[in-house]
Each structure stands twice: as structure tokens, then as C-alpha cells.
């Protein structure tokens, strides 16, 4: 997972080549 003060909460899984995010991040994004 990426971190930092300007981060959206989304990260990139280099191995699986897909976006990663905690459940709370997804829920706040789709709400």
C-alpha cells in the first residue's frame, strides 16, 4: 500500500498488477 499525506488510500500490487485499497477506502470512494 502506498503511504503519504497526499495519498488517496489506493495502492498498486506490482505482482498481481491490480489496484489495492482497504475496505474502508473502497466504501468511502463509492459512497
TrEMBL record:
<protein>
    <recommendedName>
        <fullName>Myb/SANT-like domain-containing protein</fullName>
    </recommendedName>
</protein>
